[in-house]
Design goal:
The chain is of the alpha+beta class. It contains 22 helices and 22 strands.
């Protein structure tokens, strides 16, 4: 049932349809497949058993497609976006999470419940990601607070630069398609709280636990790790900590997952031991265990890894109470099936993919890796057990990790040998701390032990991540290569398992396909000739790519701090396989060295790239003598230059004008209006994203 359901969800992602057409079509198709199922049940001939199988697979594939269709809130007629075209609209929204503080603002998700327009009230649905400027009004907001505002939510922008992280797609998985920014006084608090009591309780419990940590002296980096590791609150982790744990290959321990839920399960199982022999309360013990598991899940934020583990342990608890034993794969598949029926978009959640991938890898590979080395020594056996579990989990998640993160932790085995036992001890220590924190002296002692353990974990992870060659960076896999790599992995696994020659053929086919893909990518990279005016807010960055070399013309601030280019450019650099990068400053005249073939940069912002001529116009640009015309293909406007488009048109007739993101929005709109009146070719990077020119 799971695999056809997955196929239906993927099919909707590739080929979405109009809701009315889709529902009508799916009704007909599902009816046909149900008829096949019924026919298959009636036919007793063994050779016709495929009819029943075809009907069942088709039905569940249609179910996956249908659930994806109705799960997308933008397909609903009651979505608030259908009212945004109205002139005057007042929105009523409810906070689904407490406001999270950022450097210059607060961020919080909103569920839009009502809109008021043209004197009428409409009940609507839809989610919005809100950002609010810091002021006193924010302090009055909490989970469930109801606010009113009249600012129209805008669609979340697509990536502004080639290869940039697709934040819009990331939010769309959670049905968030719009965002809104509130200046001071941009909304009002109705004073009504409409939050669910269970989530309120969970958030209050989480806040209380965090406050207990502070009161007992757990602060700084130790506080951030304790909050993430014990209750799944990772907002306190800084970028350096995330990089250390990611580079060492142990970032998974900072996510509440099966290890945490398993320990909670064992504690609950022990606490309710006295109910085992109560025949009249045979259902009470499993019910209480499941309640404890899900209460912990709610407190930790219901991440996909927690949902997976909680569902699995709930199914195991139910099975034990019924004296039924199930294969782990069946339990894993059942939990995934339930979650995807509830929310099909969860399939595209990275946490869901990594969590299920790691567990499936352990279940599939670990029993066959373990017999490779057998030791009678308990210590050696324990160490080997951790190694083969780490290898099994890593095998299945490596392709998808490289696809998303473009890196691989080379010392993940060493790091896991240290981090996993320590994290297990930390979880038990954390539980003890929570129970004893109400007693002043014992709370301080357990907190001190917890701090020492976390410091040891942090220092060990930082040491491993800092070793030479700890991380392989800039790895690239496209979707096709990722799928083929999984084909190779499973072919090798089944070949090893069954020792049959037939599995050699798909393995060799996968190797040939990978080699062909590598050759195509290498040829494409060597032939690329591209110029990009990047979208970098309040800054200028123009890249010229020839083969696997890149040169950038940037402003003085970017020149002194090239790390400003990491987020907008790293994705495209990895995809393009850039090996050598050089820079020149727009404010410094000629660059010191011009390494890029086909690129010549002259004084006053003029350049030639593969025979195409351009000029970068800044505040300090001086135009040629009056009446002189220059043949220029491209004029790039930066830094709110005071030169008029009409005057530039006289000097550069027939040129295309590009305004980069260093210009103000007001200036860009003014230029756009002037260009439209004059019939000029104009493009605003600030409004439309990076301008890409593939030079042939």
């Amino acid at each position: 049932m799971l695999f056809p359901l997955l196929a239906g969800i993927v099919l909707y992602g590739l080929f979405p349809v109009n809701p009315r057409t889709g529902i009508a079509y799916l009704s007909v198709v599902s009816s046909l497949f149900l008829l096949l199922v019924l026919a298959g049940l009636r036919i007793k001939v063994y050779r016709s058993r495929w009819i029943f199988g075809l009907g069942m697979n088709g039905f569940f594939a249609g179910l996956g497609y249908f659930l994806s269709l109705i799960n997308n809130q933008q397909n609903h007629a009651a979505h608030f976006s259908y009212f945004t075209a109205n002139e005057k609209v007042i929105y009523t929204g409810v906070l689904t999470e407490p406001p999270a503080e950022r450097e210059n603002s607060y961020k919080f998700p909103l569920e839009i419940k009502k809109v008021y327009t043209n004197g009428k009230q409409f009940r609507v649905k839809g989610k919005v990601l809100a950002y609010a400027q810091k002021d006193q009004l924010i302090n009055t907001l909490d989970y469930g607070s109801e606010i009113l505002f009249s600012i129209t939510p805008e669609p979340v922008r697509k990536p502004s630069n080639p290869g940039e992280f697709d934040y819009a797609r990331y939010l769309a998985v959670n049905n968030v398609f719009h965002q809104v920014y509130f200046a001071k006084g941009g909304f009002s608090n109705s004073g009504i709280n409409k939050g669910q009591w269970l989530k309120k309780f969970a958030l209050q419990a989480r806040s209380r636990l965090l406050e207990m940590m502070k009161q007992n002296g757990i602060t700084g980096r130790e506080y951030a790790v304790a909050a993430a590791l014990l209750i799944g609150y990772d907002d306190l982790l800084d970028a350096a900590q995330r990089q250390e744990y990611s580079g060492a290959g142990v970032v998974h321990i900072l996510c509440v997952s099966g290890l945490h839920v398993g320990i909670v399960f064992l504690i609950a199982d022990y606490l309710f031991f006295f109910l085992r022999k109560q025949k009249k309360a045979v259902w009470l013990r499993p019910l209480l265990i499941i309640l404890v598991i899900w209460l912990y899940s709610v407190i930790t934020g219901l991440a996909p890894s927690v949902l997976r583990a909680s569902l699995m342990f709930s199914l195991i608890t139910i099975g034990k109470s019924l004296n039924r034993q199930s294969h782990t794969f069946n339990t894993l598949a059942a939990s995934a099936f339930i979650l995807l029926v509830i929310n099909p978009a969860m399939l595209y959640d990275l946490g869901f993919q990594l969590s299920y991938g790691a567990v499936a890898g352990i279940v599939a590979f670990q029993p066959h890796i373990r017999p490779v080395f057998i030791s009678t020594n308990k210590v050696t056996s324990y160490i080997w057990g951790m190694i083969n579990v780490s290898i099994a989990a890593q095998l299945l998640v490596t392709p998808i990790s490289i696809y998303y993160f473009h890196q691989f932790p080379n010392y993940f085995l060493i790091a896991n040998l240290i981090a996993i036992p320590l994290s297990g001890v930390l979880i038990y220590s954390g539980v003890i701390f929570i129970f004893l924190s109400f007693i002043p002296l014992l709370g301080k002692i357990t907190a001190s032990l917890l701090i020492l353990q976390i410091k040891l974990l942090n220092n060990s992870v930082a040491f491993i991540e800092g070793l030479p060659g700890a991380v392989s960076h800039n790895l690239y896999l496209n979707p096709f290569a990722t799928i083929v790599l999984y084909l190779l992995l499973f072919s090798c696994f089944f070949g090893f398992l069954y020792r049959k020659r037939i599995w050699l053929y798909p393995a060799l086919t996968a190797c040939l396909l990978l080699a062909a893909d590598y050759s195509c990518v290498a040829l494409s990279r060597s032939a690329q000739q591209r110029m990009v005016v990047h979208s970098l807010k309040k800054h200028s960055a123009i890249s010229f790519t020839s083969g696997r070399n890149q040169h950038l013309m940037v402003d003085s601030l970017v020149m002194t701090d090239p790390s400003l280019l990491n987020y907008p450019l790293s994705g495209s650099r990895i995809k393009s396989g850039i090996k050598e990068i050089s820079y020149s400053c727009l404010d410094a005249g000629l660059p010191e060295r011009q390494k890029l073939p086909g690129l010549k940069i002259y004084s006053n912002g003029f350049f030639i790239f593969n025979g195409r001529r351009g000029v970068v116009v800044t505040q300090s640009t001086t135009l040629p003598e009056s009446g002189k015309h220059l043949k220029i293909d491209l004029v790039i406007l930066t830094s709110d230059t005071r030169l008029k488009l009409q005057k530039l048109k006289e000097f550069f007739p027939g040129a295309r004008f590009i305004a980069d993101a260093s210009n103000s929005l007001r200036k860009c709109k003014s230029w756009a209006e002037e260009a439209q009146k004059s019939g000029l070719l104009f493009y605003s990077v600030r409004e439309s994203g990076a301008w890409v020119w593939d030079v042939r």
